[in-house]
Amino acid sequence: MKLSDVTLILEKIAPPELAEDWDNVGLVAGDYQQPIRKIMLTIDLTKAVLAQAQGNKVDLIICYHPPIWQPMKQVVAGRGDSPLLYQAIRSGIALYALHTALDTVVGGINDELARLVGITAPQPLRSQSADMEQMRKLVVFVPVNYLDRVSEAIFAAGAGNIGPEGKYTKCSFRVRGTGTFQGGGASRPAIGKRGKFEQVEECRLETIVPKGLTKSVVEAMIAAHPYEEVAYDIYPLIAPPSTVGLGRFGELTSPVPVPYLIQKIKRALKIKTVAVIGPTGGLVRRAAVGAGSCGSLLREVIARSCDFYLTGELKHHHALELSEAGVTTVCAGHSHSERFILPRLAQQLRRECKNIKVLLSSKDRDPFNWY
Questions:
Q1: For the segment 257-284, what is each residue's pLDDT rounded down to a tens digit?
Q2: Which H/E stretch holds residue 3?
Q3: Does the structural domain 106-128+245-337 have CATH classification 2.60.120.380?
Q4: Which of 2, 115, 209, 225 could disulfide-pair with 159, CB 3.0 to 4.6 Å?
Q5: Which segments of the chain belong to CATH 3.40.1390.30?
Q6: DSSP states of 230-283 as a string?
Q7: Which fold has domain 135-236?
C-alpha cells in the first residue's frame, strides 16, 4: 500500500475535519506515493521513539500528539524547532497525527473512556458546531445495468458508512426512473447513438460521504461510470449536534462506589497512582470523561450534574473549581488517559492495512515518573 492509501484509512477512522480549529492533525510529513510496509504507533514523537522506528525500518509513525504545533521557519538538524522532524524526513519516515480528531469521533478515545467508566449512551460534553458540515450526500444517476459496478466503486472509496467502526456499510437509497439525453457531434455515447434522442432506464443512487473523502469518492464514481458526462449532485448535510464533540458524559448502568471506580480505572489504564480531587466516598451515578488536558470542559461537567469526572490533567484553578463544586475528579496523567487506545487502533489498522506490519512503540513513555 502507498502512504495515500493508508491516509485514506486513517481519515475514515478519525476524520481530520472533526479536529479542533487550533489542532494540527493529518499527514505532517511524507510522500503520498511512498510504499508503506511498517507502521509504528506512539503518543509522542521522541528521540527514543524515532530511534526505535529507524532501527525497525518503519515507514510511517502515527502519533497521537502532532509533532508540529506552531508554524515553523526551519527544518534543520540539531537546532531550531525541528531536529526530530528533520531526522524523520531524512530517514524516509512519514509522520501522521490524530489528536482531537480521534478525541471527538464516535468510537474514539472518549467513547472508549466512557465505556471504561460504565457510561451508557454517552453524549459529548461540548458538541462541535463545525461538525454540522462533516458529511455530504452524493446523488448520481446510473444506468441500471451499471448500478452494481458504480455503487461498489463508491463504497470502496469510503462512502456509505453509518455508525462507529463501520457498524453499517454500503448504505444507499435507490429509485428507478428514466434519464434522457441527445448526444451532439463530438459525443461518444456509451448507450444509444449520437444525434438521437435517447431514453434510458436509470437509477438515482444516493449515499453519504465524509467531507474529507468527497474528492476521492467522486473520482472513483466517475471512473466506474459508463457515461462521458456523469450527472451527479453533492449536498451538504447537517449532522445532529450531539453525535460528535469533546468529552463524554452520561448515566452509569448502575451506581458504583467511588473507590471501586477509581480502582477499575487504574487497572484498565495500567497505572498505579492517580490524583483525586473532591469526595472520595459515595456513589457515582452520572460521570464524565475527557482524555488529555480537558479542564476547559469543567463548566460542562458541572452543568450536566456529573458527580464524577475522569481526565488526564488539570490546571490548579480548574481543580479548585471542581473541588468546590463537589465533583470527584480523577487525573490519571495526560498521556495515561490516551495511551490505552493505541493497541485497539493497532488491531484496526492490522485488519484494514493488508500486508503492513503494525507495531506499538515500546519506547513511548509518559514524561513523568510516578511514585
A1: 999 999 999 999 999 999 999 999 999 9
A2: helix 3-13
A3: no
A4: 209
A5: 3-99, 106-128+245-337
A6: --EEEEE----TTSSEE-EEEEEEEEEEHHHHHHHHHHHHT-S--EEES--SSE
A7: Alpha-Beta Plaits (3.30.70)
